[in-house]
Specification:
With 154 residues, this protein is mostly helical. It has a domain at 49-112: High mobility group box domain (DNA Binding (I), subunit A, Orthogonal Bundle), CATH 1.10.30. The protein contains 6 helices and no strands. The chain has helices at residues 2-30, 54-69, 76-89, 92-126, 129-133, 136-148. Helix 2 crosses helix 3 (76-89) and helix 2 packs across helix 4 (92-126). The chain is elongated, with a radius of gyration of 35 Å. The chain starts with a helix and ends in a 6-residue tail after the last helix. Residues 130-135 have low confidence and may be disordered.
């Protein structure tokens, strides 16, 4: 009987130790030891969207034909896998029209992106300290005075 009591007390001690260890783990998790995640950069909604690659140009076309042949398949992964397999089997000659379309879309993107960047630079440069100190009406009054030839100093 003494052995049974000893076993019970030993079991209780191990339970208590396990409980204490769990508490330590939980409290360690709650501590802010982890690095703080950086907030995501705010994306400009006016920024042009990146152009698709040749594979994605092909995928747009393939999706339509695949849906017609297999109307019962609804999964996106099934379409993606089938398209990927077909793309890998294609020769460079078969991929050429899709590569050309992708290059054309990339060129269009480059043009729109340079225009977007210029617009952003102009927006930053136009906000000079002189303009921000005076209101637009004050600036217009100054321009009118200069045109009329009047001097404010007299």
């Amino acid at each position: 009987m003494k052995d049974a009591k000893a076993k019970r007390t030993a079991a209780k001690d191990t339970k208590n130790k396990n409980a204490e260890a769990k508490k330590k783990l939980l409290s360690a998790k709650e501590k802010p030891n982890k690095r703080q995640a950086k907030p995501k950069a705010v994306k400009d909604p006016n920024q042009p969207k990146r152009p698709p690659t040749a594979f994605f140009v092909y995928l747009e076309e393939f999706r339509k034909t695949f849906k017609q042949k297999h109307p019962d398949v609804k999964g996106v992964t099934a379409v993606g896998k089938a398209c990927g397999d077909k793309w890998k089997e294609m020769s460079e000659a078969e991929k050429a029209p899709y590569l050309a379309k992708a290059a054309q879309k990339r060129a269009e993107y480059d043009v729109t992106m340079t225009a977007y960047k210029k617009k952003q630079e102009v927006g930053v440069q136009s906000a000079t300290p002189e303009e921000s100190e005076k209101s637009k009406s004050e600036l217009n009054e100054d321009d009118e005075d200069d045109e009329s030839g009047e001097d404010d100093d007299e």
